Amino acid sequence: MNKPSNRRENAISPFMNVVLNGGFAVIALACAMPVVLVIMVSFTHNDSLLDRGYSFIPEKWSLIAYESLFKDYGTILRAYAVSIGITVAGTLASVLLMALYAYPISRQDYPLRKFFTFVLFFTMLFSGGIVSKYIVYTQGIGLLDSYMALILPLLIIPFNVIIMRTFFQTTIHPALIESARIDGAGELRIFARIVLPLSLPVMATMALFSTIAYWNDWFNALLFIREEAKYPVQFLMIRVLNDIQYLRENVQLAAQNPELMRNLPNESLQMAMAVVGMGPILLVYPFFQKYFVKGLTIGAVKG
User: Which residue ranges does UniProt annotate as crossing the membrane (predicted)?
Assistant: First the structure.
């Protein structure tokens, strides 16, 4: 009679547990320190930045960066509304479409699986370029100055589709699909009632990726948006930074208003814009965190 295996042999010793927890704490602190530094610099006066450089404890506190940024707070709030609307609508549509693409190519019995997988990989390696993209969006489908021009380019991200396909292949057992089909369920019902509920971790992970992509996107606004009322917050921040940089580099204006140029924020304004831009993502991320690692690793091969 075989003796039961002693599972305590693989347990981590208390010393190693302390070492691992301490190491992870140091890594977490190293990740948080740049964010704290950005926040501190955004509240630092320009004179202190010129004299001492960046510091976690400002020598001279100042709100001039935020005052300059929110002088026209209506524009900031409107840009926030545009970014939030595009991010929410784009994320929901993107996750659904990527799931609808990934699920069929994960099925071994789908006859066109290899063809659509090849199309997916091909778009990862080659693209039509910016010029052709601009012509198609503006002249082909007429999306100049349209919110759809900010949503469509990020709807299907091939790498995210591959992650979802791998998850479906390794997690959704074919027996579940066969049993549902025997019970009379169609493909759409199987996808909605069985596949999606079992795929919540990867769906949440892809939703996080899409949220970050839409929120941080400014290049498509640069290409397709001309009306200032439709600027997303990231592109608006770039415009503000460019305007400030132009004022600081204007020699004639600096000679006429030396006091204005001296008090005009530069480094602190950049950090203030970073704080304003990353704020919503920092609030959203904790809701997806518990699904993040699970969604990326649950599809791995288990031994």
Answer: 20-43, 79-103, 115-135, 147-168, 190-215, 269-288
